[in-house]
UniProtKB/TrEMBL annotation:
Any one GO cellular component localisation term in the record: plasma membrane
Domain UspA residue range list: 8-126
Pfam families per the UniProt record, alphabetical: Usp
Descriptive protein name: UspA domain-containing protein
Coiled-coil intervals: none
UniProt cross-references to InterPro entries, sorted A to Z: Histidine_kinase_KdpD (IPR052023), Rossmann-like_a/b/a_fold (IPR014729), UspA (IPR006016)
Domain of life: Bacteria
Length: 227
């Protein structure tokens, strides 16, 4: 493939279902521009200490890379440096011109006061285009069990988290709430991003008791193995 536009695409992924979405976006852009594609993941632990679930994701990312003739998978394990530093280093080494990564929406004020990986990358590699893929506002729900997703937030409340629809200073997480249909209670699924990974957690009466990711297909009754 001839790199007509002199572009190189870098997709930064972390463990979770959102990684597939990011890679597909990167593949689409790379194919349009006839550009090489790099898939990068970073982990603070050595590769030998990763659990089975993480290894499964890594194998899937390698398969994506192998299925694209111009793609290459890069893993940086046993890393203690800031993520933005590592991404910038890989970008320079591979002449990257466009980077794709996922991030939940933050207010402009939060970015200014707290900083973010996006701001760090802009400072580190100012001449690289950044594509931010946000949390999807829909779920595959053919049975109509859930209403259309709306913006919501989680507030720490003791050991639990309280669901709210107004942003506050003490907001812990921002995401999308999918309410169960035909109920007056705030029951459903809250989708958000944590450490660059997309999570789905159960909400019961407006309360999240634990930030444990639930299998979205099982929750929606889409798992064919469940009878």
């Amino acid at each position: 493939m001839i790199n007509v536009y002199n572009e190189s695409i870098l997709v930064c992924v972390y463990y979770g279902p959102n990684s597939e979405r990011l890679i597909k976006r990167g593949c689409a852009i790379a194919n349009i521009m006839k550009a090489p594609l790099y898939i990068l993941t970073i982990d603070p632990k050595p590769f030998d200490e990763l659990d089975a679930e993480k290894l499964l994701y890594i194998e899937q990312w390698k398969e994506y890379a192998h299925s694209n003739a111009t793609a290459q998978f890069i893993m940086k394990d046993n890393e203690s440096r800031p993520v933005s530093k590592i991404i910038a280093e890989v970008a320079r080494d591979n002449n990257i011109t466009q980077i794709i990564l996922g991030q939940t929406a933050h207010s402009r004020w939060e970015q200014i006061t707290k900083g973010s990986i996006i701001n760090s990358l802009v400072r580190e590699i100012p001449f690289v285009d950044l594509h931010i893929v946000s949390v999807a506002r829909y779920i595959r729900d053919e049975e109509g069990n859930y209403q259309k997703g709306i913006r919501a937030y989680l507030i720490k409340d003791g050991k639990n988290y309280q669901l709210t629809f107004s942003h506050r200073k003490d907001t812990e997480y921002e995401g999308i709430f999918f309410k169960e249909a035909d109920t007056d209670f705030d029951n459903g699924i809250f989708r958000f991003m944590k450490d660059a990974s997309t999570l789905h957690v159960l909400v019961i009466d407006g309360i999240v008791t634990e930030l444990t990711n639930v299998d979205i297909n099982t929750a929606l009754g889409l798992d064919d193995s469940v009878k």
